[in-house]
Amino acid sequence: MCYSKIPVTSMKDLRRRMHQTVDSFLEEVEKMPNQDDDSTTVNNLHQLASQYEEDINNLLMDTADAEIQKQNEDHAGNPIFEMLKLRLKMKNFDSSSDEPITGDTILEKALCVWESMLKRIKSWWKKLLDFLKEIVAVLGEIANSIIEAVHKVWKWLVNLF
What is the pLDDT of residues 142-156, one digit of tens each? Predict the structure, then answer.
């Protein structure tokens, strides 16, 4: 059985805030003037989505950070994403999109832009997970090396005395 390791209250808060973000995005799209120039409309949608992309990533990072700190009280007050400079890496992440924006109405185009943005966010988080897995693997190897070295020193001390 698969279940979330994040408490229900945190998930509800995250869901509520994500819904607010989507609602805000759609309100901004509805305010956009209908322009004859399709490329201007698409550029405006990309600009708008990039603002919300940063908001969503920060929301996800804040939620993850809060959960990490709840589970590791020893590190409370030390946001992991700040320590690893991940917020800076997120801002430097290549967010270009090669996907064509299709649709006859501005809302259909907005949906394409939004889906493209969500794919970029998913890609960034997947790369982050792979990066963290590599770090954990290296730390595991270092820990094993330290244990082996201590064991050798212990044997040497036992043989010495």
Answer: 999 999 999 999 999
85 phi-psi bin (left φ>0, alpha ψ -120 to 50, beta other):
left
The strand ranges marked E within the chain are none
Phi, psi torsion values for 90, nearest 5 degrees: -65, -40
- Token couple for 117: 């943005």
CA angle centred on 24, ends 26 and 18, rounded to 5°:
105
- Cα distances (angstroms) measured from residue 85 to each of 31, 37, 60: 36, 40, 15
Residue 104 CB burial class (10 angstroms; 0-12, 13-18, ≥19): exposed
Closest of 52, 51, 61 to residue 86, by C-alpha = 61
User: How many Å apart are CA 45 and CA 156, to the nearest integer?
Assistant: 68
For 5, which DSSP code? S
The domain limits of the chain are: 8-132
Q: Kindly report the backbone phi and psi dihedral angles of residue 136, in degrees, each rounded to the nearest multiple of 5, phi listed first.
A: -65, -40
pTM of the model: 0.64
